[in-house]
């Protein structure tokens, strides 16, 4: 597992209203340029890819663009400044235990191969039209909390259901980053109680009525789980459906949000501590 520190992104200053365009997300910025152009043989790159996937892929992803717990190495300043392993090699051997990166006792040939793969991965990323796929907290900091508060209490109608005098007043301390945005956009329960957050569906087919939690629905099939935990699937065309979904308003809201509205409300929710 490899861990590299990323450069901090200055926090957005709170300003009343919206005097100019929203702050650009770090995800829209190009990765740091490689300081010294380097080339490696296809054999070294292929060998390094195998080593990287087996040793580092779980944390950093198979393509080095970020994974379960490790950052995107194709955007790492240290990789950009490395010249044929002069910085990466010592780091791989010593690790960064305090940051969760162990030391790796790899022979020089394996280290050189991993270095070759990382530079190739970075080169591919630099030449791609897209940008990185992972989401950092800094990517979400483009909204204005005051504008979000106005939308929450006004056009968005959020205050109709969410009172700032109850537990919702501290939502920003209970959820952070992407988890908070996900709860805001589609707040289904997760974890052991996930079933309780699903819509309640009542199906009538061939004179039989069945109620349960809706777990799947497309244009052809519908599936519910009844109170006993049994799953039942029917062709959608054969049933009469009555759906009770208190969270449907969140689904409907997705079609009304502008990008600015969404990030403004998120900024407001973050401020609720």
General description of the model:
The chain has 273 residues and is an alpha+beta fold. It has 2 domains: 26-127, Cytochrome c-like domain (Cytochrome Bc1 Complex, Chain D, domain 2); 145-270, SH3 type barrels, CATH 2.30.30.100. It contains 10 helices and 5 strands; from the N terminus they run ααααααααβββββαα. It has helices at 42-55, 57-60, 77-81, 88-94, 108-127, 145-153, 171-174, 177-185, 248-254, 259-270; strands spanning 200-205, 208-217, 221-225, 231-235, 240-244. The chain has a 5-stranded antiparallel sheet with strand order 4-3-2-1-5, with no helix packed on it. Strand 2 and strand 3 (221-225) form a beta hairpin. The longest helix has 20 residues, at 108-127. The protein is extended, with a radius of gyration of 25 Å. Residues 3-17 have low confidence and may be disordered.
Helix proportion:
25-40%
Radius of gyration: 25 Å
CATH class of the largest domain: Mainly Beta
The helix/strand class is alpha+beta
Main pleated sheet? 5 strands, antiparallel
Distance between the termini: 35 Å
Q: DSSP helix count? A: 10
Order of secondary-structure elements: HHHHHHHHEEEEEHH
Strand order of the largest sheet: 4-3-2-1-5
Label the overall shape.
Answer: extended
Number of spatially distinct domains: 2
What is the percentage of strand-forming residues? 5-15%
User: Would you tell me which CATH topology of the largest domain applies?
Assistant: SH3 type barrels
CATH architecture group name of the largest domain:
Roll
Uncertain regions spanning at least 5 consecutive residues: 3-17
The total count of strands amounts to: 5
Overall pLDDT score: 82
């Amino acid at each position: 597992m490899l861990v590299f520190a990323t450069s901090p992104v200055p926090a957005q200053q709170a300003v009343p209203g919206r005097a100019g365009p929203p702050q650009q997300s770090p995800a829209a910025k190009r990765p740091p340029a490689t300081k010294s152009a380097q080339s490696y043989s296809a054999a070294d790159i292929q060998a390094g890819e195998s080593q990287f996937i087996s040793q580092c892929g779980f944390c950093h992803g198979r393509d080095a663009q970020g994974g379960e717990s490790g950052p995107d190495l194709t955007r790492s300043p240290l990789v950009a400044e490395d010249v044929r392993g002069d910085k990466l090699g010592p780091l791989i051997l010593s690790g960064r235990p305090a940051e969760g990166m162990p030391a790796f006792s790899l022979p020089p040939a394996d280290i050189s191969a991993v270095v070759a793969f990382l530079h190739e991965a970075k080169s591919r990323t630099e030449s791609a039209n897209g940008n990185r796929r992972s989401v950092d907290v800094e990517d979400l900091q483009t909204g204005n909390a005051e504008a979000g508060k106005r939308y929450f209490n006004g056009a968005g109608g959020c205050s109709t259901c969410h009172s700032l005098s109850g537990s919702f007043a501290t939502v920003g301390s209970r959820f952070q980053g992407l988890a908070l945005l996900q709860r805001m956009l589609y707040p289904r329960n997760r974890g052991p109680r996930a079933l309780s957050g699903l819509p309640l569906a009542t199906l009538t087919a061939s004179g039989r009525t069945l109620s349960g939690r809706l777990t799947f629905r497309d244009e052809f099939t519908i599936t519910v789980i009844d109170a006993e935990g049994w799953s039942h699937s029917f062709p959608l065309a054969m049933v009469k459906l009555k759906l009770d979904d208190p969270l449907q308003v969140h689904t409907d809201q997705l079609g009304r949000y502008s990008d600015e509205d969404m990030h403004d409300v998120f900024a407001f929710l973050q401020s609720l501590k």
